[in-house]
Structures are given as structure tokens and as C-alpha cells.
Design goal:
Blueprint (H helix, E strand, L loop, with lengths): L11 E8 L1 H4 E2 L7 H12 L4 E5 L2 E6 L6 E6 L2 E8 L5 H17 L9 H4 L4 H7 L11 H7 L2 H16 L3 H12 L8 H17 L12
Parallel strand pairs: 2-4, 4-6
Antiparallel strand pairs: 1-3, 5-6
């Protein structure tokens, strides 16, 4: 029996530089999700970039029914983002996994394996604001609930909701409104979430990653 091969990590080259998100990830071109993912990526890219030395991280469309997406990595290096085309949550799932990628790449502590959302000073006001959010619950046992409430998971959820909220794309705005109307566990009510959205944006402001210096409004 041959030895199992692990997927290759994305290569790094040169010094980190500020890049648009379109240069950070590589979307699938022929997938039925292509147009929706482009809209979601454009919405995120209008808010911020990323200082990185990575080659583009591939985004892979899957038919997984157990999860909307996944961010795969090894130690400090990404492998890919995976987004399911099943269930009608592709934009939200993609932005959620993009949030994980950003969290992991902004800061990674090799000793503790902590990511930026848990320990970086630029995230501290966001952590304080997010701690006041309602603790949404998913069906499942203790382990699943504990993961759902973990700092890096709350960051990914709040990042995805912020991008949808700030988007000027009608399809993305309608998607957010539909999820809120359905009381989806991954989304918080608009009024409750408004202060957190501002803090998400301010994270990128503090890091010098915002694309434009604009007033932040709830």
C-alpha cells in the first residue's frame, strides 16, 4: 500500500505586499458557482486587501452536503478553500472560509497555534464587541457547540455577515435578508450585529488593509 500523500500547500514567493483579494485567491472559472463567488469576492475586496507573499489560494467547488465550506491548511500555510454548491449558501460559505484564511494569514503563532482573532491586538475591540452577541446554537452535541462559539469561528461568521451587510450587490443583500428572516443560526439580527460590523471593518483599518478610508456607518 502506497504512503498517503498530503495535499500541497500554496507556495510563497518574495516579500509580503499589500494585495487585492482578487490576487489572494483563485476562483474556479467553469463552476456554476463562478458568478456568485465573483460577486462575493468583489464585495470583500471593496472593504480591504491582505498583506501576503502567497501565490493565489485555490477555491474549489464541491458537492459536500455536510458543510457549506472548509479552509484547509497545514501549520501556517494554506492548501485551499472549499465551497459546496449544495444548499444555496455558497456566497456565505465562501466568505466564511475567506474569513478563516484572513485570520490565519494575518497572524499565526507557531507555538500556541493561535490565530489573529484570538490574540492580535488589532482584533481586541472586535473581541469585546463580539462577546456581547447572542450565542446562537446549532443542533448537535457539546463539541459542536463549543466549536461554533470558538473565537475563530465567531470571527469567520461575523466577517461573512459584515461583507454581505456592506455589499452594494443586490443579490448578496437579498441573501443576507433572507437568512435573517429565517433566523439562520450563522447570522445575527441586523440591529444587534451593527456595532460588531463596525469593529470588523476597524480591524482592517488598524492593520492598514482597508482599500478606502471612508466613514464607518452602522
Amino acid at each position: 500500500m502506497g504512503q498517503r500523500r498530503y495535499p500541497e500547500c500554496v507556495a510563497r514567493e518574495g516579500k509580503p505586499r499589500l494585495r487585492s483579494l482578487e490576487d489572494v485567491v483563485a476562483l474556479p472559472r467553469r463552476s456554476p458557482l463562478a458568478a456568485e463567488l465573483r460577486r462575493a469576492l468583489a464585495a470583500a475586496s471593496s472593504l480591504h486587501g491582505l498583506r501576503s507573499d502567497l501565490s493565489p489560494v485555490p477555491v474549489v467547488a464541491t458537492a459536500t452536503i455536510s458543510e457549506a465550506g472548509a479552509y484547509r491548511f497545514r501549520k501556517r500555510d494554506p492548501i485551499d478553500l472549499r465551497v459546496s454548491r449544495i444548499g444555496g449558501r455558497s456566497a456565505l460559505g465562501f466568505l466564511h472560509e475567506l474569513g478563516h484564511l484572513l485570520d490565519h494569514q494575518i497572524f499565526y503563532d507557531r507555538k500556541t497555534r493561535s490565530w489573529a482573532s484570538a490574540v492580535h491586538a488589532a482584533f481586541a475591540p472586535w473581541r469585546d464587541a463580539a462577546a456581547l452577541l447572542e450565542k446562537r446554537a446549532l443542533p448537535g452535541g457539546y463539541s459542536r457547540q463549543r466549536y461554533f462559539q470558538s473565537v475563530h469561528e465567531v470571527w469567520a461568521r461575523s466577517y461573512a455577515q459584515t461583507v454581505l451587510l456592506r455589499s452594494e450587490e443586490p443579490a448578496l443583500i437579498r441573501r443576507l435578508e433572507k437568512l435573517q428572516a429565517e433566523d439562520d443560526a450563522h447570522i445575527w439580527p441586523r440591529e444587534q450585529f451593527a456595532p460588531v460590523a463596525i469593529e470588523v471593518e476597524l480591524v482592517f483599518e488598524r492593520l492598514g488593509l482597508r482599500q478606502l478610508s471612508l466613514p464607518l456607518a452602522a
